[in-house]
Amino acid sequence: MSAISQAYIVDAVRTPVGRRKGGLAGVHSADLGAHVLNALMDRTGIDPAAVDDVVFGCLDQIGSQSGDIARTSWLAAGLPENVPGVTIDRQCGSSQQAVHFAAQAVMSGLSGLVVAGGVQNMSQIPLTAAALVGDQFGHPDPYSGSRGWRKRYGDQTVSQFHAAELMARHWDISRQELEEFALASHRRAAHAVDSGWFEREIEPYDDGEHALAVDEGPRRDTTLESMARLKTLDPTGRITAATASQISDGAAALLIASEEAVREHGLTPRARVHRMTVLGDDPIMMLSAPIPATRKALADAGLTEDDIDAVEINEAFAPVVLAWQREIAIAPERVNPVGGAIALGHPLGATGARLMTTMLHHLERTGGRYGLQAMCEGGGQANVTIIERL
Asked: Which of 36, 136, 340, 356 has its CA 20 to 30 A from that of 385?
């Protein structure tokens, strides 16, 4: 059996992240995806016909996001018809899993060039829209109708909002701590925007009708006092809209290449995929899986917390990151150094690729070597990816 090939990240690009009903709200999801695909082809200079596959993440695959949005986006971009596409759903980790699948394909030797990414327009297709459609057919959610599920988990509430409250209580994270974290996310993101740190990774969107050049999410005027006035999502809880990720629109894409493809196409890789881990945990607590998944990823990679120069862990809710920080000994200043989804938004199917794009550019800007990305996901799962800057 031949040796496993390396999987290299050749380039990574994203749209600005638009806030709900913001600058990208009126853009068809396929056109958002097409935008980053064209940008990726232009930046890498490869022949698009040489791409073996396009793997995109997307949730709530109905309406403008139905019909295999990976394939539709590629065709909407005017790119060669010979290139196939596949759309996957691992909940919030969908486009991070797309990177995993792309890397696994080139490491196996079966593919040379694979595009990985994701797209989501939450302004047009709201969160849990697919479940709402299912309700019309008498199936209100993916769980309650299952005898096996009820036998195992009873009638426990299955909700990310409920899970965030469970995490805050389990790790005894106060509302004030959550809000201080959220404020720091906005400040870090605003500083990154003002410093021009996102300019290289963003391909501004402008189709003549809709235009957006910078992330819309960071709130420069938010304060602890204004957060304290918000009602909690649960009357007896600690989570408010201020300590949850924003509803957003956007897309991102990366080109993953094998060693042979790098040589054949004269490419200059920017990083290599060092380790890929996926792990399950309690589906009711749901958002805690990044903790054991990070431990496993570090152990399997032969690395320690001190080896990691930058972390991107999705800020689905503030307690996800704060609980992770209490369990994983990585310096807080290395975690979400340019803000996270609380400030920058969380376009579900695109976020994994967006985080990796941002992490790669941050490592290059700061000279860091290893970056670790972690994502909590529906069903109590987590993807963790470690990349090494070259």
From this structure: 36
